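[Q] Does anyone have a clean structure-token version of this?
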Amino acid sequence: MNRRATIILTLLLGALAALAQDQPRQVLFERISKYHHIEVYDEQGVRMLSFNGSCETRMSLADPLQGHFEYTEYFQMPFIWNPDIKTVLMAGLGGGSAQRSFQHYYTNITVDTVEIDPVVVEVAEKFFHLTPSPTLRLHTNDARQFLRHSTTTYDLILMDAYATTRYGSSIPPHLVTREFFQLANGHLGSNGVLCYNVIGQIVGSRDQFIAAIYRTLKQVFPQVYLFPAEETQNVVFLATKSPEKWTYSQAQLTGNTRIRDGVARLPSFWMRMKEFTDRPPPNAATATILTDDYCPIERLIEGH
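[A] Here you go.
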């Protein structure tokens, strides 16, 4: 595309976005499934997916690769530790922001997605440009049940499965215990990485829950790192099977190498990797270890 055509396209997209911003909220889909009150609507040039009133996914109407929540980009940080990722398992679909990104930037990677709600799968395909293919496979199941019956080994497991409780969006308890992490660890290759999105802050909102997940992950994985999102209250945990402890400078140097070598293709990769921290949450040493027998998520979210 020549420079003039690029300018014209940019102006056209800008005009469309401005026009969309003047449009009132338009509901495209609404249904109560077994798990959620699901709503899809367009507002100010952005398509939203809502579960029980909370926004789960955002997508720009002008460019489906834009407008998403920032935290989904941290799911690509594992390329720093493992440049040879070829197989990915993701628990939780929503509108498929992470899946859509992997499908676009990494055509040589196979992504299995496990989503418990078949209506969410329907919505992602119909309204959020998610197209199943041999490299993007969708499974309707509970993530723990799927892993229990699977014989597949993955290079990367991404966890972004949420349920709605009286405290808002919350992780299903059976997906955040030591036993679950042991199960996931058994499905990772020798250089495998587990990423987990958690709503909360290292210091502040839900910090006891963040500390509990950190300490529980450390019961199973040798190293656990954190990527706190800048724009939202999300912390993405990154747990490695490798016992080698990485420093901030090592992660930045290797990340830049991955960008230079074309391994990491997300345009904002260089910004996201700067949020890396190898420091545990302040109260991690005394935090609750979450198990199948004792997983007091609601108490931890409340901060008691």
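[Q] Thanks! Anything notable?
[A] The mean pLDDT is 92.
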